[in-house]
């Protein structure tokens, strides 16, 4: 197909989904689709779903309901991908007759072909898990056409079965991608102008462990770090149980590895961590944090916290607050627990009332807000190295991120996009920093 058609993607959920949506856009570019921010003008609408939150399926069905009338008014194709698609499969096509295609989290590579069929009126659902770990098309290679930063998937799925989490059921078991292919993709991205890569997976620390002869994740970081022209490396997400001394040492040894780690603790009490099946104690978590801070004294740590998990007492909850204070996270994602079907925690006794969980969430968020503001204020009058990513939304400033992953806005010439520059921080806000270009030395 060569005619230009418009593609609108609505993305729900986590970074993995954002990355999948980028891949969808890149894959469909080859079918003549150009992204548009305007759903009402689109020839193809893709809804990339997430099933982590409670009642996600109901929300997706009701979201899709709004397209019923629109479909009568004008011609366009409607597709659903992501975790709810994986979970519901062909049932979605049956229950939503105006839906054209459904693709699971392991079937992105089939999308161009499915869209071509849909253009000819053939409706289809593809949600099979692919368990052959050498299948290269699990990780379709994409060229998203520019940009300074790029996400590169290194593995997907998870074998950890945290008792509250649906990922192992909808994303499947861990599959790592061959290191040679990842390195090749990063080299290609750098040749195309990318300066920073974020290596992505549900549990990157266990990268390669189940593939005989494959590099460890630390080994992969070292190889990628040797690529000329690449300035920065980040990765996410890291399971505290699996972060190895070898990986911690990378923070001391590899200057290109950014001084930031997302290390989700989820809770501060051993009783709750055990119920969550997290595989570490509070003390073990804090030891890993201490080792990271020893390897890279200026490292910034972000995390995740769940409150109101079944059986969580006030004392358990206070231990979560004290853990947050000990670690001094720069920021966290915080959630009130909600049960997901199929997960072990859904049948645990000791439900915390919604009111209590909401109150605890507010206390967590208030504490984090205070710590974030204090941390951001601490950067005022320091000089930070910033990779300039683009123009800010207001259009009168540039924005970029520090090695610690803080967003910095500052006024400067747009020709600096793609460069590493020194910025003197002048103000800290709750979500970002403001600065001015530091004079050249
Ligand atoms: S490590 Fe736990 S929370 Fe993270 S994806 Fe795996 S099962 Fe889910």
Description:
Monomer. It is found in: Cytoplasm. Keywords: 4Fe-4S, Cytoplasm, Iron, Iron-sulfur, Metal-binding, S-adenosyl-L-methionine, Transferase, tRNA processing. The chain is built from 14 helices and 19 strands. Helix 6 links the parallel strand 5 and strand 6 (124-126). The longest helix is centred in the last third of the chain and has 24 residues, at 354-377. It is 33% helix and 22% strand. The chain is globular. Mean pLDDT is 89; it is low at 130-143. A six-stranded parallel beta sheet has the order 2-1-3-4-5-6. Strands 15-16-17-19-18 form a five-stranded mixed beta barrel. The chain folds into four domains: 5-126, Methylthiotransferase, N-terminal domain (Rossmann fold, 3-Layer(aba) Sandwich); 133-258, Transcription Regulator spoIIAA (2-Layer Sandwich), CATH 3.30.750.210; 261-271 and 286-377, Transcription Regulator spoIIAA; 383-437, OB fold (Dihydrolipoamide Acetyltransferase, E2P). Iron/sulfur cluster binds at residues 158, 160-162, 165, 167-168, 202-203, 239.
Which terms would index this structure?
Transcription Regulator spoIIAA; Rossmann fold; 6-stranded parallel sheet; 4 domains; binds iron/sulfur cluster
In short:
Belongs to the methylthiotransferase family. MiaB subfamily. The protein has 441 residues and is of the alpha/beta class. The protein has 14 helices and 19 strands.
């Amino acid at each position: 197909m060569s005619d230009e058609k418009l593609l609108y993607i609505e993305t729900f959920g986590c970074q993995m989904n954002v990355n999948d949506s980028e891949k969808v856009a890149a894959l469909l570019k080859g079918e003549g689709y150009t992204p548009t921010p305007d759903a009402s003008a689109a020839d193809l609408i893709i809804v990339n779903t997430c099933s982590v939150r409670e009642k996600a399926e109901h929300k997706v069905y009701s979201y899709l309901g709004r397209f019923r009338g629109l479909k009568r008014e004008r011609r366009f194709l409607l597709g659903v991908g992501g975790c709810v698609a994986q979970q519901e499969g062909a049932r979605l096509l049956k229950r939503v007759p105006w839906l054209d295609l459904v693709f699971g989290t392991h079937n992105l590579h089939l999308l161009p072909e499915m869209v071509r069929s849909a253009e000819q009126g053939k409706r289809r659902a593809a949600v099979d898990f692919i368990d052959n770990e050498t299948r290269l098309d699990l990780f379709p290679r994409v060229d998203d056409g520019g940009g300074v930063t790029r996400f590169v998937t290194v593995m997907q799925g998870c074998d950890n079965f945290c008792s509250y989490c649906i990922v192992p059921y909808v994303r499947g078991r861990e599959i790592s991608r061959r290191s040679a292919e990842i390195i090749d993709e990063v080299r290609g991205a750098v040749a195309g102008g990318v300066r920073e890569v974020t290596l992505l997976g549900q549990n990157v620390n266990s990268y390669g462990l189940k593939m005989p002869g494959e590099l460890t994740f630390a080994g992969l970081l070292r190889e990628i770090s040797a690529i000329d022209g690449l300035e920065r490396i980040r990765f996410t997400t890291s399971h505290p149980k699996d972060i190895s001394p070898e990986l911690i040492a990378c923070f001391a040894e590899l200057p290109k590895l950014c001084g930031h780690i997302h290390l989700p603790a989820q809770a501060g009490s051993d009783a709750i961590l055990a119920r969550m099946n997290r595989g570490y104690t509070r003390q073990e978590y804090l030891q890993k944090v201490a080792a990271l801070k020893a390897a890279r004294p200026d490292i910034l740590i972000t995390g995740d916290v769940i409150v109101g998990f079944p059986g969580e007492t006030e004392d358990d909850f206070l231990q979560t607050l004290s853990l947050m204070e000990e670690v001094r996270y720069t920021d966290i994602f915080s959630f009130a627990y909600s049960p997901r079907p199929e997960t072990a925690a859904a049948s645990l006794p000791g439900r915390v009332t919604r009111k209590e969980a909401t109150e605890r969430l507010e206390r967590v968020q208030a504490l984090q807000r205070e710590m974030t503001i204090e941390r951001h204020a601490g950067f005022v009058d320091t000089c930070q190295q910033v990779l300039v990513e683009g123009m800010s939304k207001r259009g009168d400033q540039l924005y970029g991120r520090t090695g610690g992953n803080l967003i910095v806005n500052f006024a400067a010439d747009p020709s600096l996009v793609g460069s590493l520059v020194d910025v003197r921080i002048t103000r800290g806000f709750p979500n970002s920093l403001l600065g001015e270009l530091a004079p050249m030395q």
